[in-house]
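Just curious: can you write a single protein's sequence together with how it folds?
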Amino acid sequence: MNIESATENSSSLHGGKPRMGAHAGVEKLTVVEIGVEQLTPNPWNPNRMSEAMRAKLKVYLQREGFVEPLVVRAIGENYQILGGFHRWEIAKELGYATVPCVVVDVDDKRAKILTINLNEMKGQSLPTLLANLVHDLSKELVLEDLEKQLPYSLDELKDSLDLLKIPDGLDAFLKQEAERQARERPQILTFVVDDADVIERAIDAAKHEHGLGTRGKALVAIASAYLTSLEAPE
């Protein structure tokens, strides 16, 4: 990919802007350096990141730098971020003057679709293949160091390594299960509550009491226990 500097070659951005049309999949994409102060977030971005994951991302950028450009579109003299908002925020904190970007030429409708796709169209790691990768890395790095460099907690890394001890036949089952999950998107529940703290405490208690790995599984366990209590004879 060609790399140009927006600060040194402004004509490449404001004259013949290196943009990509909605159907220009065969066009050559150009990565350009754009000043962080010229970038603004879009108002509809649905992506949120936990503080723990944000801290990991900050360490990652400090260590590796930008290995993936932001995706932006021109709005007047500035550029609106369609993909890479969290990296842009952290780049400002780290004192970056410019960040690498790909500039696309899209209207509001296409911009919103692109924002969703950039956040959602991602593959899913097969558990056993991921476990093998973690195992290979653990030969050179202790798990505590891997926890700092990967988007997983220490418990998740340990669970991943435990998969290498699985009996024959379970590997194929896990692969089928991952493929099934890829076909069937999980249902996302959205609702408003008056006291979220009660729910969070109940979920945390269920996770620790029953060794459940995710908040979703804990919530299902709570709901199942409630339904069971309704069916129990008085």
